[in-house]
Amino acid sequence: MSEPSELASNRRQPAQYSVFGLVAESNIDLPLTPAGSRKQVEIYAGSVDVQGVALYESAEPAMFGCYGNNDEILLVWDDVRFSVTRTRVVIDTGHLEAAMQLLVPAVWSVVLAAHHRESLHGSAIARRGFGVAVLGDSGSGKSTAARGMIERGWQLISDDLLTFDEDLRVVPGPPWMRLLPENDVDSGGFFDRGGKVRMHSSTTSNPVPLRAMVIMDSRYEHCVKLTGTAAVAALFQHIYNPVLTHDGQARRRFDLVYALAASVPIYAVPPRSLFPDQIEDIVGSDLT
Amino acid sequence: MRFRVPEHVAARTVDDEVILFDAQKGEYLGLNSSGAAVWDVLASGRPAPDAVEELIKRFDVDRASAEEDVTVLLSNLQNLDLISPITP
């Protein structure tokens, strides 16, 4: 199968990128943070055949399938296919833009899982070496809350996907945020395939420990501190990709959620109600 | 009768609660403070009557209530395959 012309024209000398704490090397020009370390994952264009056991399939709101074939995970959308292993990602598409929007963070969550790292769906910002994570369903206001803090001088750690290092610090993500169109004010961004505006935002250079986590949850009418099983249950609701793709993953998710619940204060607030003043009250005056 | 915790079950304490995770099913069960007290006794290999005494001592409940609570929780844990009797 010949290489799609769009990917062929994008090829150049391989470069290294930092992607959620892993070093990727690709000869495709990727909108990611450059890295100077030895590669852990290779990203390249090629042919992807759909085979293996169906782990998840859906037709709505868009066609998507996830398949397991020994140590390979196949992710299939109607216009792009990815083959993912621990050491490489193969992209099969005639629409490079679509592929880039899916590669990070959606496909990369599977690469992280292959490296035994689990992820949550949320945004995190940092100030003076400590961070706050905001979790919630799509459209609940996570990124909008994070952007409000950035306008107050905080720095983005990661938007959309949160993953952690061995010390439970949030790992820096790619240099962008995704906002609902009604919350985008002259950001200079562009509409992505998910209908959100993707705008550039610089991120922290290093992993950041969390001072607090705030979960947007419609079951709560005001800010409540969660403890015990309630905290664990709330975090479990916001696993980035619920589909299990690798052996031992359920246990690693539990270990992550438990470790966070046991060490980081967790609060619940109603969706779309989290404002910068409230975040600063939660984390304390020493970070403001 | 004494009990053991199956290999597929992980128990973690958060605040004063215990969370039991079944790695085979990918499901978890939370036990409140009294349930956690019963679990701690049973998971350490001590018999059910010891759990009854623990509830009476720590939570100031009468014996009949404590016995019923331990019986119900033990039944639930066994039905969910979160604890297993040690057969001699």
Write out key terms for the chains shown.
heterodimer; A: 288 residues; alpha+beta; 9-stranded mixed β-sheet; 7-stranded mixed β-sheet; 6 helices; globular; B: 88 residues; 3-stranded antiparallel β-sheet; two-stranded antiparallel ribbon; 3 helices; 45% helix; 24% strand
Give the structure's gist in a few sentences:
With about 290 residues, chain A is an alpha+beta fold.
Choose one word for the global shape of chain A: globular
What strand line-up does the widest sheet of chain B have?
2-3-4
SSE sequence of chain A, one letter per element: HEEEEEEEEEHEEHEEEEEEEHHEH
Largest sheet: number of strands, sense, barrel closure of chain B: 3 strands, antiparallel
Summarize the SSE layout with pairings:
The complex is a heterodimer of chains A (288) and B (88).
Chain A: H1 5-9, E1 11-19, E2 22-28, E3 33-34, E4 41-45, E5 53-58, E6 64-69, E7 72-77, E8 80-84, E9 88-93, H2 96-114, E10 119-127, E11 130-135, H3 142-150, E12 155-158, E13 161-163, E14 176-179, E15 190-191, E16 197-200, E17 210-216, E18 224-226, H4 228-236, H5 249-263, E19 266-269, H6 276-283
Parallel strand pairs in A: 2-4, 4-9, 11-17, 17-19
Antiparallel strand pairs in A: 1-2, 1-3, 5-6, 6-7, 7-8, 8-9, 10-11, 10-12, 10-13, 14-16, 15-16, 18-19
Helix pairs in contact in A: 4-5
Chain B: E1 3-4, E2 9-14, E3 17-22, E4 27-31, H1 33-43, H2 48-59, H3 63-79, E5 84-85
Antiparallel strand pairs in B: 1-5, 2-3, 3-4
Helix pairs in contact in B: 1-2, 2-3
